[in-house]
Sequence to fold (755 residues):
Amino acid sequence: MTFVVEQLVEAVLLSGSPGVVLPERLRTLVRGVLDFDCSQVRVVVLGGGTGLSTVVGGNSRLAGWPANPNLGLKQVFPSLDVVVCTTDDGGATGELLKQLPMIGIGDLRKLCLSMVEPASLRRRYDLDGGRAQALVRLLHGVFNHRFPRGTTSAGEVEDPLLAAPPSLREACPEPLRELLREVGTFVAPGGGGPLVEVGGQCLGNLLLTSAIFAETGGDFRSPPAMAAIRKGIDRITDAIGARPGRLHPATAAPGQLVFRYANGVELHGQSKSATSRRGVAVDRVYPEFYGVPEVPAEVLRMVREADLILLAPGSLYTSSIPTLQVPGIASAIRENRTALKVLGANLWVEKGETDIAHEDRGRGFRVSEILDAYERNVPGGRAGLFNVVLAANLQHLSGDVLRNYALEGKKPIYLDRRTVEAMDVEAVESTIFSVEHGRQSGFIHHDPKKFALAIRALLFAREHGRLGRTLASAGLEGGAPAAGAAGGTPAGGLGAGAAVAGHRAGPQPLCDYWAGITSTLGRKRFQPDGIREVLRDIAWRNRDIQARHFDLVAGARVVPAAEWKRNTEWDSVLGYYDPEDRCLRIHEQVLEDPNRLQGNLLVALGESLLGRYVQERSWARLEGAHGWGARRYEIRLLPPGERDCLLGDARLHEYLALARMVPHPEDRERYGITLNDGEGFLPPGLLFGLMYAWYLDNSCAAIMENEMAILHWPEATLIPSQAHEYRRKKALVAFFREAVFGHEVYPSRRTISED
Fold:
């Protein structure tokens, strides 16, 4: 039974704790686990983010990490290989991606530092223990150093030791000092490498990037090949006391994530998962790569031959699943029929990813729903990917800890054991976090030492029996892992996620996107000029905005309150597009609030896509008894050849129908809508702008969130009139997804001007 294995794991984690007395039989088993020889166990860990680096070697971003870096899986398993997700595009990594065609480097940098071993530093540089410890603190300061946004130059790039306290600099051996200076100088002005703006950057990212591009032979305009990436990483890891050849990017192809939400909205960018509050669950996620994403044959062989394959805890949709969507990796895991395959479950739901369950939008994920996400998103489903899930035993959490997290809107991910085991996955629950740290700080995270011990105990249980059988009956005899225990065979064809799982070819690296937006906005007029920078930042945060979306925009200007002439009967939005001079106009009032400024700029930009398409507008009161209490709004379209509109003729007519405008039975260019007296509506131009802003970021168009809230509910729960409105708004979302933002049928894309 699984609970017997859980008893063993928990006993191992408690061994040595004051006041803990174990039965003799259990003490014997614990000694067996602690004496279990892991030196020849081939381990592959996959994932990304802080969760991965934490279980591998501790969270190297924490201030206290240098005091005890000998933690985690690296301490227990000498033969440890780590495969890292490469689609990170947030924070300092995003600043690099604006400038260079490359993979996301941030998670690789975290792992470089987390995998540092003081013993390796002592051997490599002939250091005593004290100086090696000081060197770890120095490396911690250098690799985690961040430059404030707006920084134009920094001596820390040319001499990275300046980022560490002066008292630690003497601990750096001269060969390492020279290497850091060489690598840093390469990306500094006049250094011969790619010139990088340091504002907002992390110094560790710059050093790793420099080492990679130094291996490209001077080609800084193309994404580095895997060979260059591996050489650059190995050069850094070897120099700082981590094991070279053990850190592997999942692919060398630059990419970004695409999120499809349950309401049909589809958006680019890892950061969107954290910032967008859709109110609906994530339906699918998949990477969009520039070029063909290939995994080195060595990495695939390593996965096929591993004794243990671990999917590390981490962000489900932005770290864990994307790694398995790189072609070849999931198949290699399934082909390994003898490895113990463990999924490390997260401790807490994560906003924007696991905070809304598919079956119940009022709660967060349970462990079984994590498994469902793999089924939906990985080609072939979850079959053969893992046979054990390791979850946290939340019974040991204090009420104070739960309260503190609840105040931040965080909830634990509970293990629904029966459902998980009905899915043919063993569920093992243990205290893989620091209870003492939780009591002291009020917060918890995975404890790297406990996590590694738990994995060691699972391997021991696997070696001396099988998970799911009592250890008492299994005995302590050795033996090879049972063949076929990997739990399932590769599914025939693709699994439930076949329609959208895998990858899609992207049009350009992110640095080219940034350059295109910068060039486009550089040709526009802005009053004041600072609006240009605001729009550029908006485009980066909302990379579904295309450069061509500015085609009908000549510029933007802020309008003083006294000059604001906009009719507020139907439109109280403080940003709009004027087709006469093709200018985005923004009320001066919104300058005081960055969020309102962003929202109104997005509305105005959205309106500009319709441009100049109306010849005349009119209101008419209906006469006679049949028109009692009603009035009519009508528009007449310009002839197709006279329009200034980014939508083609057929698409424009399609949109007007979705905007509730009714075509005249005899005049194709004439549309109208009949309204009750006192009833309001959204005119087509304003609706287009609001939908554009809402689609990109619903926090910037809160007024539309009320309009679109019906999509939060299943259609089957609605009455017929509501169901009709549900379908119209669902179709409106699909129109914007396909016609405006180019997400049509996988993998094809339709341009906005196509009919």
